[in-house]
Amino acid sequence: MNFITPAYAQGAAAPGASDLVMQMAPFAIILVIMYFLILRPQQKRAKSQQDLVKNLRRGDTVTTAGGIIGKISRTLDDNEVEIEIAPNVKIRQLRALVSEVRSKGEPVKE
């Protein structure tokens, strides 16, 4: 008396693959959610910061990462700017540490 047919017995050994997919699906969903909620906005902020730093000009009123507010008096090179924080008081600042441009200056006269 054989109650289990050979076809049913062979099918019972195979469900491991579908169980694995069902166990991994929540992790995949979490990764997709993390990408859209954390990584993507962070990449957008980094790109906007790069654009801001690249477009700094003389005359722009800026705020540094340290909270200093001043006007760009000149650009020294690709990495540094000179900021006037009071009359006749100028500091050198890394471009990457400029956190915001409060007002744009006039374009340079040609």
Tell me the fraction of residues in β-strands, as a range: 25-35%
* Shape by Cα distribution: rod-shaped
Give the C-alpha Rg. Answer: 30 Å
Residue runs with pLDDT of under 50 for 5 or more positions: none
Number of helices: 2
Quaternary assembly: single chain
CATH topology of the largest domain: SH3 type barrels
Helix amount, in percent? 40-55%
Which CATH class of the largest domain is shown? Mainly Beta
Could you describe the 3D structure shown?
The structure is a single chain. This protein has 110 residues and is of the alpha+beta class. It folds into 2 domains: 46 residues; 47 residues, SH3 type barrels (Roll). The protein is built from 2 helices and 5 strands; from the N terminus they run ααβββββ. The termini are far apart. The model has no long low-confidence stretch (mean pLDDT 84).
Summed up, what is this model?
By secondary structure, this protein is of the alpha+beta class. It has helices at residues 6-13, 16-54; strands spanning 61-64, 69-75, 80-86, 89-94, 98-103. It has 2 domains: 6-51; 57-103, SH3 type barrels (Roll), CATH 2.30.30.
